[in-house]
Design brief:
Elements: H1 5-21, E1 41-46, H2 50-53, E2 60-69, E3 74-77, E4 86-88, E5 94-100, E6 103-110, E7 117-120, E8 128-131, E9 136-141, E10 143-144
Parallel strand pairs: 1-9
Antiparallel strand pairs: 1-5, 2-3, 2-4, 2-6, 6-7, 6-8, 7-10
Length: about 150
């Protein structure tokens, strides 16, 4: 098949015109808040002091499943960052963790799981939170261990 020069010029001209008339993609910096999927739950809140501990590093909030008595805080947790729920912290420290399996969790904040710190509750003890199906729990402002 042979394309003559004027036909090729017409094809490339139409492609250029099509590209020029296509609207530009606008990227927003405001994250979309997602409602948990059916049967899952979520957490929202902020960790305002986290960026001071790890300046200029992207931070994550990990949810490690907790086994034990949530009331007394006696029990244990195991964090596997490749399996357990996690989300990024925004510039001011706010977060929303979506689509977590209902259950008890300990929250951990840091640039990596290995360097992360526990989120504290009352009397400076480890905070255990309960994720409930189809609900997003607002935890407010949180503190991390020194």
């Amino acid at each position: 098949m042979r394309i003559c020069f004027p036909a090729a010029r017409l094809v490339f001209g139409l492609l250029f015109l099509l590209a020029a008339c296509t609207p530009a993609v606008i990227v927003t910096t405001t994250p979309t808040r997602i409602v948990p999927s059916s049967g899952r739950g979520g957490l929202t809140g902020s960790v305002p002091g986290a960026s001071e501990r790890w300046p200029d590093e992207p931070l994550l909030l990990f949810a490690a499943p907790f086994s034990g008595d949530a009331g007394s805080g006696k029990g244990f947790y195991l964090l596997e960052p490749n399996i357990h729920p996690k989300t990024g912290l925004e510039a001011g420290g706010s977060f929303q963790l979506n689509n977590a399996v209902p259950g008890l969790y300990v929250l951990v904040v840091g640039p990596t799981a290995e360097r992360a710190r526990l989120v504290l509750g009352d009397a400076g003890k480890m905070r255990v939170v309960e994720v409930k199906a189809d609900l997003v729990l607002d935890l407010g402002s949180l503190e991390i261990t020194p």
